[in-house]
Design brief:
single chain, Aldehyde Oxidoreductase, domain 3, 42% helix, elongated, 14 strands, 2 domains, TIM Barrel
Length: 297
């Protein structure tokens, strides 16, 4: 079985991770067996097929397609005709399949589900990236992902030209608004103490602090934040925050970001714009698996 290691910014999707996700997906769909295919299709029947894009998109997830069919039958030949990250037109064949008819039929929906979802994430990401082209702002993803699919979805964001934010709670220090609510009850020095403790425990990890107001931006600067998340601020507030920070920390706009306003947000001068919609609201791209006429035993 041949797999590609996906590299997504600081995160690598390993063969083990891919297999865990693929096996869970197949178990969900196939269960004790594909009873329709078992009844209708001879075990030794062979087939040829192609997966076709039914609309323009950025392709992402072809290696998962290959892995799904190889998990069912290692002799199924999967030939990619494009690469992840390619922009394709409606009607483009993105890969061909040849081998066990049963394996192709059984794996069809699982393979398409991965390809449709990840291509949807990549396509939406590319739209946001193109919308801010020419500014310094970079598009970031978030942790608003489908449970257990985060590694795949962040891979698709990278394919679409976005950048990956933290993978989870374990790889970045990020003091958010609800942390600050509790810290405020602990006294005026609690935020600074938290930042100091974070640096002591994780000296190579930047400290990110969320700010809802310009006053909170000043507080974050005072404790030496490396990166300040400017949450749900107006365009004027974002511009003032960028001026206040003056390059002493990275700035990130977050909250209410849409294609209609992302350009204006980028033009305030922020370094990053995080967009939860990349993963939680991307529409699946339509692909179909079209069986060829040459089905043989």
């Amino acid at each position: 079985m041949v797999f590609v290691r996906f590299v997504v910014g600081f995160m690598t999707l390993t063969t083990e991770t891919m297999l865990r996700i693929i096996r869970a997906a197949l178990a969900e769909d196939v269960g004790a067996g594909d009873i329709t295919t078992e009844a209708a299709i001879p075990a030794d029947a062979r087939a040829e097929a192609a997966i076709v894009a039914k609309e323009p998109c950025v392709v992402a997830g072809l290696s998962l397609v290959e892995a799904v069919f190889h998990e069912l039958n290692s002799k199924v030949q999967v030939k990619p005709l494009v690469n992840d990250g390619d922009v394709v037109a409606k009607g483009t064949r993105v890969c061909t399949l040849a081998g066990s008819a049963s394996a192709i039929l059984t794996g069809e929906r699982t393979a398409l589900n991965f390809l449709q979802h990840l291509s949807g994430v990549a396509t939406l990401t590319r739209e946001f990236v193109e919308a801010v082209a020419g500014t310094k702002a970079k598009i970031l993803d978030t942790r608003k992902t489908a449970p257990t699919l985060r590694a795949l979805e962040k891979y698709a964001v990278a394919v679409g030209g976005g950048q990956n934010h933290r993978m989870g709670l374990f790889d970045a220090v990020m003091i958010k608004d609800n942390h600050r609510v509790i810290l405020a009850r602990l006294g005026p020095n609690a935020l600074g103490n938290a930042a100091t403790t974070a640096r002591k425990n994780h000296p190579n990890t930047p400290v990110i602090i969320e700010a809802d107001t310009l006053e909170q931006v000043g507080e974050a600067l005072a404790v030496g934040a490396d990166h300040i998340l400017l949450d749900n601020m107006t365009l004027d507030e974002l511009g003032e925050a960028v001026k206040l920070v003056g390059g002493r920390a990275k700035t990130e706009a977050s909250g209410g970001v849409r294609l209609a306003n992302v350009r204006a947000i980028a033009e305030t001068g922020v370094d990053y714009i995080s967009v939860g919609a990349l993963t939680h609201s991307a529409r699946a791209v339509d692909f179909s698996l079209e069986m060829g006429d040459s089905v043989r035993q």
